[in-house]
TrEMBL record, chain A:
Keyword annotations: Phosphoprotein
PROSITE patterns registered for this protein in UniProt: RESPONSE_REGULATORY
Lineage of origin: Bacteria, Pseudomonadati, Pseudomonadota, Gammaproteobacteria, Cellvibrionales
Keyword presence, Nucleotide-binding: no
Protein name: Response regulator
4-aspartylphosphate: residues carrying this PTM: D52
Gene3D superfamilies: 3.40.50.2300
Length: 120, 724
């Protein structure tokens, strides 16, 4: 079981991802934007981060970039949860340090399988 | 594993409505700007984006595909590839309405009506077909169709991969040479291997020849490359998908070696040598226990996925039909909740102090006791105030729809309108807010439709061609006052009176003050527009407006000046649950008079009492003649004092007229919690509710507007039928 940080400005999306992951026994914390998430991350350690791309205040890409500057998040899997599957977005995400991406609408089984995969 | 998505519906609906409101406001703001503020465009985009994500995941394909097209367009706008034209803004605004409609259908469990959204969808697709730049030569329509398919597909459970069509296992040779920085994105090669292992039999050989000397070795970099043999029924695409996330950070080659049957033994031989070298400090532990060919850690999750989607429509049809409609929630700022927790903490402290005091109480502690009780009183009051604040929302929730409405009205009527909102942060009980929304819409529509003149007429009258509508809210005592004023033509008292006589609302000989004439517009069946427009309805509106406001315990006032404009003022109680009351005694009974209604309390001077015909007595209060209503007579009880001389009179006001209530004694003023008489007993004329006093007795709350209107009816029937 892992501790996972979920970042999304949409509460329903947050709830759904959280419920899915909780059903597999993971511990969840969530944040409504990148800034909040970063603040939480600075004082807490997670085994994985699942973040939306489009958010107010700080978007998912900036969050990823910021997280990678923290020593404890150097290798932490960071997954971008996004409806945009365009290659351009992915490569920006990658170069910011994201581990991979999940496409919304997510399918709960697939989300769990992916999380399982990155947690190793 | 099954997760009931139903539980997320309500949050999604609320969030979507909020998102649509934000989108609408941003659209309106953008339409006023020369150059669109990117942050606003982003807000608009984000709203569509969130709704799309949620609706697709929750399985609302109509909304998902609609928002998908919208999002595609907005994305182009956001990236500067497409200009946001006024027509575009208009379409986007309409699409907000369409989406609201669709979500409302979902909320009520009715089939989605696409009548509204279909033409918009077509219009958007036409816009998309007109690719913004020549560089987008391809057929974008196809792209949409494809993307829509994708949306639909994912949520019908197909995992995209499909069944492997291969006829037998094949062996693949994969050479994987990651770039050194691959670890810095959290991509451990070992995870990829594990995923491959789920596809078939795997053997991995690490090539370590590029690892530098120990001194030059850095922890973060990966210098190992791998040669992998995989025996699987999956095709190349599936194998490649395991590398999806690292494709641009590695050299990768995947080649088919041979058909599998021959290679299994060879595979086994290689296995012992294949322990992958730890790639970083962190991965050391996991790596050691890693891929032995026998273990298959990823049992295909697809199998579990299949039955789930089939269940869904059934669950939707049967379950939750009534569950959602009534349940509404409220969003409360965390500061309000923190405050409550804080106050409850103080309450607990006070309580423990008091109980300790009670343990062995003696008279010396009396002072501390009264101090403690004082503190308890303060705690309770603060707690009550703060609990009430939870239900309070800023009136901007009700005001927010007006900018859009004014814009639409202005387009329809050809009038130029400027809307000014004031006091948007004024807080109001949520229930009151919900019920005042429609009446306000009606009043604002009326102000534009009947109040404001056409631009030419305005110029001719020496006014600015743009009319001004001011919507202002403020707290006054225990009330909130909402003012809707315009600088239009004002009300024509003579015209209104003529109309009312024509319709038989007032008789020809009746003399009315201007104020009374204005109020005729609230009479059922009255409408001043010579022609009925689709804006202000058919004269069914204003009487309903007044009725709604009255039922909330509020009142409505009109001021108007010919040529200058009109102002309608709506007074509403801040909350429906608590009332500031004046306790009065009549005989053995205690009644409560709402403090807001009280003008003054006085001792009757006999020479100011005028007896008119029948049982009616009037009291001369400055310029007014105030009818005296003896409470004891109204409710048929025994009073100490039935003589008017030197008795106490509480003068109350409502709907522009005053009455004086004859009481025996004035008691304390206090806040009372209103309990409905109807739900506990039955409706009683002249009583609006009841409450429980500190001593446990029940006191009735007087219905001032009701008493006033029955008094004025009595006045119109001068023989005092009622009293007989």
């Amino acid at each position: 079981m892992a501790r996972i940080l979920i970042v999304d400005d949409s509460a329903s999306m947050r709830n759904m991802v959280a419920a899915t992951l909780q059903s597999a026994g993971h511990q969840i914390k969530d944040a409504a934007d990148g800034q909040q998430a970063f603040t939480i991350a600075k004082s807490d350690k997670f085994d994985a981060v699942v973040t939306d791309l489009n958010m107010p205040v700080m978007n998912g890409i900036d969050l990823t970039r910021n997280l990678r500057t923290l020593p404890s998040y150097k290798y932490t899997p960071i997954l971008l949860l996004t409806t945009e599957s365009s290659a351009e977005k992915k490569s920006t995400g990658k170069s910011a340090g994201a581990t991979g991406w999940l496409v919304k609408p997510f399918n709960p089984e697939k989300l769990l399988a992916t999380i399982k995969k990155v947690l190793g | 594993m099954s997760i009931d998505l139903q539980q997320f519906h309500q949050v999604f609906f609320e969030e979507s409505y909020e998102g649509l409101d934000a989108m609408e406001q941003a659209l309106l703001a953008v339409s006023d700007q020369e150059e669109a503020d990117p942050e606003l465009i982003n807000t608009i985009f984000r709203s569509a984006h969130s709704i799309k994500g949620g609706s697709a995941t929750l399985g609302f394909p109509e909304i998902a595909s609609f928002t998908h097209v919208l999002e595609t367009l907005l994305d182009e706008v956001r990236e500067g590839k497409r200009e946001l034209t006024p027509e575009g803004v208009e379409l986007f605004l309409q699409s907000c309405d369409a989406m609201r409609g669709m979500i409302a259908c979902l909320e009520n469990n009715t089939p989605i009506d696409t009548n509204e959204s279909k033409p918009l969808l077509d219009a958007f697709e036409a816009m998309l077909a007109n690719a913004p730049g020549a560089d987008q030569g391809g057929a974008p329509e196809e792209g949409i169709a494809k993307a829509e398919d994708a949306v639909a597909q994912t949520f019908f459970g197909s995992d995209g991969g499909g069944e492997p069509p291969e006829d037998g296992p094949k062996q693949w040779k994969i050479i994987f040479k990651p770039e050194p920085q691959i670890l810095l994105t959290g991509n451990e090669p070992i995870r990829i291997f594990r995923e491959l292992e789920g596809l078939g039999e795997l053997s991995v050989t690490a090539k370590t020849d590029e690892i530098p000397e120990f001194q030059q070795l850095t922890l973060d970099e990966c210098f190992i490359s791998w040669e992998i043999l995989l025996t699987t029924e999956s095709d190349k695409e599936e194998i490649e998908s395991a590398f999806d996330w690292v494709l641009d950070e590695c050299e990768l080659s995947i080649e088919e070696v041979s058909s599998a049957s021959a290679s299994v033994s060879e595979n086994a031989e290689q296995a012992p040598a294949s322990a992958p070298v730890p790639t970083s400090a962190e991965s050391e532990n996991t790596a050691e226990s890693a891929p032995a060919p026998e273990t298959k850690p990823a049992p295909a999750p697809e199998a579990a996925a299949k039955p789930a989607p089939a269940k869904k429509p059934a669950a939707k049809a049967s379950g939750g039909e009534s569950a959602q409609s009534g349940a509404t929630s409220i969003r409360v700022g965390i500061d309000k909740v923190d405050n409550l927790i804080n106050l409850v903490g103080e309450l607990v402290i006070t309580q423990s102090m008091l109980s300790e005091l009670g343990n062995n109480f003696d008279l010396e502690k009396l002072e501390r006791l009264s101090h403690g009780l004082e503190q308890l009183k303060q705690n309770t009051r603060e707690l009550q105030e703060n609990v009430m604040r939870i239900r309070m929302l800023p009136i901007s929730f009700a005001f927010n729809r007006f900018p859009r409405m004014i814009r639409d009205l202005s387009n329809k009527t050809g009038k130029k309108v400027e809307l000014v909102l004031m006091g948007e942060h004024t807080e109001l009980d949520k229930t009151v807010m919900e019920q005042i929304g429609d009446p306000l819409v009606h009043l604002v529509r009326n102000a534009v439709d009947h109040g404001l003149e056409m631009p030419d007429d305005r110029v001719a009258a020496g006014k600015d061609e743009t009319g001004k509508i001011v919507l202002a809210a403020e707290h006054k005592g225990g009330n909130i006052v909402i003012e809707i004023s315009d600088d239009g033509r004002g009300m024509d008292a003579e015209k209104i009176l003529g109309k009312a006589r024509e319709k038989g609302i007032v008789s020809a000989e009746q003399e009315l003050s201007d104020q009374e004439i204005y109020e005729l517009i609230f009479e059922p069946g009255f409408s001043t527009a010579a022609e009925v427009s689709d804006l202000s309805g058919r004269g069914v509106g204003m009487d309903v407006v007044r009725r709604n406001i009255k039922s909330l315990g509020g009142r409505i006032e009109i001021e108007s000046e010919m040529g200058k404009g009109s102002c309608i003022r709506v007074h509403l109680p801040l909350t429906l649950a608590i009332l500031d009351g004046q306790l009065v005694r009549v005989g053995n009974e205690v009644f409560i008079v709402p403090l807001v209604a009280i003008v003054e309390s006085l001792q009757i001077k006999p020479d100011l009492v005028n007896r008119v015909s029948g049982n009616m007595e009037l009291y001369r209060l400055r310029e007014d003649n105030v009818p005296i209503i003896p409470i004891y007579r109204e409710f048929n009880i025994n009073a100490d004092n039935t003589d008017l001389d030197n008795a106490l009179l509480v003068v109350v006001e409502g709907e522009g007229s005053k009455i004086g209530l004859l009481v025996d004694d004035l008691l304390a003023q206090q806040q009372v919690v209103i309990k409905s008489l109807e739900s506990n007993y039955r409706r009683v004329d002249g009583i609006s509710g009841a409450t429980i006093l500190g001593d446990g007795s029940v006191a009735l709350i007087l219905d001032i507007p009701g008493l006033i209107s029955s008094a004025s009816q009595n006045r119109r029937r001068p023989q005092g039928v009622r009293a007989a």
